[in-house]
Amino acid sequence: MAGSNPNAKPMNLTLKVWRQKNRITKGGIVDYQVKDISPDMSFLEMLDVLNEDLLRQGQEPVAFDHDCREGICGSCNLFINGRAHGPEQGTTTCQLHMRKFSDGDTITIEPWRATAFPVNKDLSVDRSAFDRIIQAGGYVSINTGGTPDANEIPIPKDISDRAFEAATCIGCGACVASCKNASAMLFVSAKVSQLALLPQGHVERKTRVENMVAQMDLEGFGACTNIGSCAAECPVGISLENIAILNQEFLAAKATSNNLA
Amino acid sequence: MSWISKTFSSSIGRKIIMAITGLFLCSFLVVHLVGNLQLFKADNGVAFNAYSEFMGHNPIIRTLEIVLVLGFGFHIYEGLSLAIKNRAARGAQGYVSNHIEQNSSWHSRSMAMLGSIVLFFLIVHLYNFFGSLRFTDVPRDANGNEDAYALVLDAFRNPLYVALYVVAQFALLYHLLHGFSSAFQTLGLVHRKYTPAVKFIGYGFSIVVCAAFAAMPIYFYFFK
Ligand code: HEM
Ligand code: SF4
Ligand code: FES
């Protein structure tokens, strides 16, 4: 295989995995052994091996979320050895490779924890609260009509770069999972500042931030205390600067919007 | 007025209240410190007593006192109730393994605990000095001013008070090491050019102010 290391020795690992039947039952940690794990495997491939073993033994496989397996969808959310997306900075769980671990390691694997993110089953968590926040205002309305020319609206390069940086948020929820306050401010701020920086976002600028923050509070996320765990654990490096922009946008909108309610 | 109450009951609005009251309390610390530096004057409290008499009776100061009480009240109420709300948002089931120390600093996570130590200190501190001066008859010095200096001398003969005052300054130090620049972040006053300076000033402010306050009980206990 291209890029694989022929000298890499297969590893045997002890996994401590959170198992939980459904939303209502209480869960707990269960120990498993996995053998002959290649260091070139991704973390999810290692879990695939575990699940094949479990199926062979007639046991229920471990439920975990994943989709793209290339770091762009934000589904593969695991709390690994006490860190969101595991020990490596700037990676999603699907991009984390077993070469970051050593033979004989014990690895604790838990679901995201937050009141607003209930566990569906095992390691799979309901993050629909994020969808409802986006539905509350994280969009721009595009009216139909003739196709506009490309680059018709001039946007300074540094502004478009900053908007793009904010736009890289994949909605994984590592920010919430790692925050002591289970605050969703980094996620909300990424979308709010992305759209506030761009002219296309200005039409709904005030209602967007008012409605998204209201929905964020309604979902039961905590309030930010500027601890910074979120930005440290974010797989795409969304910065705290966005939260400062969010707070400004919120205050400006509240002070000047026509919304009296 | 519902949009106003909605603004300041939202999570961001409440944070804004924390930041504004927090910075206001920082400005109070400066005034309080500058006045109290007169304790170090070798005049057996003449200047300090005159200052204290002025602070106790000047109508402008007495009005500002109401603002100060409101500032503390909002800061403490919002701070503690946000801490409780955030605890609820975190959820009942915690992580079995959580290495939060690898992504954030201890003092930034301990603001409510540090603030509570400061609050405990504040109650004892008000009882020690403010309570006596405002609500009891204190002997007067040679100039006819209430002898606040004597109260200070007396209180800081007690090693328990000295210890509490010094510990409280450490709590305030760590509260401010995070709080000062955090308030700017909350207010959205962040800029690539100026934020490093805000952080630097915040550290300097916290260390100088807290060290100077802590020096007072130590000075009186050991040298007076
Ligand atoms: C002279 C005394 C005090 C000063 C100068 C002060 C200053 C500050 C500042 C500047 C902040 C940062 C605000 C922000 O992040 O936006 C803060 C946060 C905080 N303070 Fe204080 N504080 C004082 C006393 C207290 C007391 C007595 C409590 C009571 C328990 C308290 C509880 C808190 C809490 C819980 C936070 C974090 C809240 C948050 O970030 O949402 N503080 N303080
Ligand atoms: S801000 Fe970062 S950690 Fe939070 S949802 Fe977006 S990508 Fe994930
Ligand atoms: S599976 Fe899509 S980001 Fe990991």
TrEMBL record, chain B:
Per UniProt, the keywords (alphabetical) are: Membrane, Transmembrane, Transmembrane helix
Keyword Transmembrane helix appears in the UniProt entry:
yes
Source species, domain of life = Bacteria
Where do transmembrane segments lie in this chain?
Answer: 16-40, 60-77, 111-130, 160-180, 200-222
Cellular component, GO, one term: membrane
Q: What is this protein's name?
A: Succinate dehydrogenase
Q: Which organism is it from?
A: Hymenobacter rubripertinctus
User: Which taxonomic lineage does the organism of this UniProt entry have?
Assistant: Bacteria, Pseudomonadati, Bacteroidota, Cytophagia, Cytophagales
